[in-house]
Structure formats: structure tokens, C-alpha cells
Write a structure and sequence with these properties.
Number of domains: 3
Oligomer: single chain
Radius of gyration: 52 Å
Shape: rod-shaped
Low-confidence stretches: 405-410
CATH topology of the largest domain: Heat Shock Protein 90
CATH superfamily of the largest domain: Histidine kinase-like ATPase, C-terminal domain
Strand content: 15-25%
CATH architecture of the largest domain: 2-Layer Sandwich
Order of helices and strands: HHEEHHEEEEHHEEHEEHEEHHEEE
Number of helices: 10
Length: 410
């Protein structure tokens, strides 16, 4: 132990302190109160590109880039309030070499007094490699952030595309479901509506043959009438289905022409009165100008559908009222009956294809008539609404704009 103690250098003595100063890897400079460099170690000289002893006597500002023009003021402030501290907290510091090139540094200041004079020791570290590493890390982080942002965007777009696909699939599934329901309704309607008249035709044909052989002309004529009625009903069903198909495919064109609305409706009602039930009456009145520019065939089909419904869903002895009011800009058509009415629950489905009210199970029909009427009204850029109450009847109100240009619209 004594030998070790004997070989241990005296770091607190002059030689030890001189060794620390000369061989330290940090740059060390000593500056007096006027800012002049009074000493610099070899590391500081190499760091700033000066020869041995060349820094002594220079102002410390020689080691500061000229763009930091307020360094003198900061040095004076430190001289009046000296205390050991890192320099430039929170900011990037740079040193200036003899060749005016700059490099990033880290500086710590320590004031001391010797012989009644004040000095500051500056410890300087060249942090070029650290800065380069930090810059590379920042660049890598920025590139990584861009990659993350890019992939996030790709993922977001993929999610949006998946959501769109999901929505499209949901729409397709809803349409498929709706189509399935329509097919079910059609099959149900067809099986019921076709079976009854066909059965009537078959049974009446056999009776017609029987009564023909026996010479009972009256009974034979009665069943011939039943056959005609059944055939007419089948024709109506097929016409409804055909109309829906043509409307869906856009194959019905609208031909506008000037027509006498009162004359047209009277003609339609004269054709329909023979199919009224016992003691049913149809009353029609018109107000205003009788000439309107509309599609004759479509108006005829609308009136026929609405009035035939009024006849079917009203009992014997009830009244059916039709009114047209022609004003300057529009034609209003109302069809009102005193029939069974439509429940509040059924009203929201009234214009759907193949829909029939729960209280209409014993009345022949396809459930297509009002759907066709609504599509005809839409085709003519009109508006339809209704009022209804169970056991008190239903009123349909249709409004069409007047003064269309006289042309055909496909």
C-alpha cells in the first residue's frame, strides 16, 4: 500500500492540475472580466483550428459566429452576475473556427476569482457527431412518421372502401330481400287471384255444356257471363303486371296533348257504371276550364284504377264522388268513396307493390293498382295524397301542373 501511495500522482498539486488542463478531451478556455482569453488548452486550440498559444489575447467573441451579435451583452450580464451554469439552456450553440466554419458545441461556465481579478472558465464539447446522430434520428423519425401517416391513410382508405362495400352489400341485400318479398307477394297474389277465376271458368264451362244439352238457355247465359267476368279479371291482373314491368323499365312514354278533362272522365265513368254494385252511384262534378294539357292515356288509367278500387271496396248502396277543379296553374282530381277505409297501420304501405290491406282479404285485387297510380302520377310530375278512416271511406287527392309544353317525354 505504501508503494501504491508513493506512485499516486498528486492531482491537487500544480503538476496534476496542469496535466488535467493539457490532456483533457474537453476544450478549456479561461477568460478575464474584459472578455479576453488568457489561457486555452490544446483540445480547445485544436477544436477551433488555432496553433498553440494563438488564442491567448483574443476576445472570446472570436470563437462565436458573427450572427450572434448580442454575445457581448450576454457576457457583460454574466460578469455582473457570475455563477456556475450550462450556457445557452434550451437553444443550440455554435462555435466559430479560425476558418469561419461553424460547429455545434455544448458549453459550461464556471466563474472564479484569483489575485483580486475575476475570471471565467469555459468547458467546451464539440457535439458535431451527436448532432449528426440526432439529425439522422429526426430524419428517420420524420420518414417513419411519413410512412406511418401514409400507411394510416392507406388503412383509412381501405376501411372507407370496406365501409362502402359493406353499405353496397347492405343495399344489395335489402334489394334482394325486397325482391324476395315481392316474389313471395306475387306468388301469393297469383296463386289466389288466378285460381279463383280459373276455377270459375272451369266449373262454368262444364255447366254451359250441360245446360246447352238440356236447352236451358237462361242458365247457360248466366254462366257465360261468369266466364266473361273471370276472363276480364284475369286480363286486368295481366295488365297490372305488364304496366308495372313497363314502368320499371321506363318503357312508358308520356305524350302531352290538349284534352277536355270533363269529357274524358265522363266517358270513363260511363264505361264503369255497369260494374257498380247494386244501388252504388257515381257522382262527378267539374269546376273551372275544361281544357288541360296532359297525357290522355295515363289520366284515363289513373281514373280507372281509383274508381274501380272505390267500387270494389265500397258496399252496395254507397256513393262514389269524383271532382276535378281546374285553376290557372294546376288541375286537382279527387276520388272519394264511403267504403271500408284503410287502417293507420296499413296506410304507410299503401303504395307498395302487392300490398293489400288487412281488411281487404275478401276483395279481389292484385295489390298493384295504387302502386301503378303513384308511378303514373310521378311520371307526370304530379302529387298524390289521401285521407282515410276505417268504415268511413277514403279520399284520394291528385294534383297536376297545367300548361305543359305540347310534346312527348320519354
Amino acid at each position: 500500500m505504501a508503494i501504491l501511495e508513493a506512485n499516486k500522482p498528486d492531482m491537487e498539486g500544480k503538476e496534476g492540475l496542469e496535466a488535467l488542463f493539457r490532456f483533457a478531451t474537453e476544450g478549456i478556455i479561461v477568460v478575464d472580466s474584459s472578455g479576453a482569453i488568457v489561457n486555452a488548452n490544446p483540445s480547445a486550440e485544436r477544436m477551433f483550428g488555432y496553433e498553440q498559444g494563438e488564442l491567448v489575447g483574443k476576445k472570446v467573441e472570436a470563437l462565436v459566429p458573427s450572427r450572434f451579435s448580442n454575445h457581448n451583452q450576454k457576457r457583460d450580464n454574466f460578469t455582473h452576475n457570475p455563477h456556475a451554469r450550462p450556457m445557452g439552456l434550451g437553444i443550440d450553440l455554435y462555435g466559430c473556427r479560425k476558418d469561419k466554419s461553424e460547429f455545434p458545441v455544448e458549453i459550461s461556465l464556471s466563474p472564479y476569482v484569483y489575485g483580486g481579478n475575476r475570471f471565467v472558465i469555459g468547458f467546451i464539447i464539440d457535439i458535431t457527431r451527436r448532432k449528426e446522430a440526432e439529425d439522422r434520428l429526426k430524419q428517420y423519425s420524420a420518414e417513419l412518421e411519413k410512412q406511418v401517416e401514409k400507411r394510416t391513410m392507406i388503412m383509412r382508405e381501405a376501411i372507407q372502401e370496406l365501409e362502402r362495400t359493406r353499405d353496397e352489400l347492405n343495399v344489395a341485400l335489402e334489394k334482394e330481400k325486397e325482391l324476395g318479398e315481392l316474389k313471395t307477394r306475387f306468388v301469393s297474389m297469383a296463386s289466389h287471384e288466378f285460381r279463383t277465376p280459373l276455377a270459375t271458368i272451369l266449373s262454368s264451362l262444364s255447366l254451359v255444356s250441360k245446360y246447352g244439352e238440356s236447352g236451358e238457355k237462361d242458365k247457360q247465359g248466366k254462366h257465360v257471363t261468369r266466364i266473361k267476368g273471370a276472363v276480364s279479371h284475369l286480363t286486368d291482373i295481366l295488365n297490372d303486371v305488364l304496366s308495372i314491368s313497363r314502368l320499371e323499365e321506363g318503357r312508358i312514354s308520356m305524350t302531352l296533348e290538349e284534352i277536355d278533362i270533363r269529357e274524358l272522365i265522363n266517358n270513363v265513368l260511363n264505361e264503369m257504371r255497369p260494374i257498380c254494385k247494386d244501388a252504388q252511384t257515381i257522382n262527378y262534378q267539374h269546376k273551372g276550364d275544361t281544357l288541360v294539357t296532359l297525357d290522355r292515356k295515363i289520366i284515363r288509367n289513373i281514373i280507372f284504377n281509383l274508381v274501380s278500387n272505390a267500387i270494389k271496396f265500397s258496399n252496395e248502396g254507397k256513393q262514389i264522388s269524383i271532382e276535378t277543379i281546374s285553376s290557372e296553374h294546376e288541375l286537382m282530381l279527387t276520388v272519394q268513396d264511403e267504403g271500408m277505409g284503410i287502417s293507420a297501420e296499413d296506410q304507410k304501405h299503401l303504395f307498395e307493390r302487392f300490398f293489400r290491406g288487412h281488411n281487404a282479404t275478401n276483395v279481389q285485387g292484385t295489390g298493384l293498382g295504387l302502386n301503378i297510380v303513384a308511378k303514373y302520377v310521378e311520371l307526370m310530375d304530379g302529387h298524390i295524397e289521401f285521407e282515410s278512416e276505417l268504415e268511413k271511406g277514403t279520399k284520394f287527392i291528385l294534383i297536376f301542373r297545367k300548361h305543359h309544353e305540347k310534346n312527348s317525354v320519354d
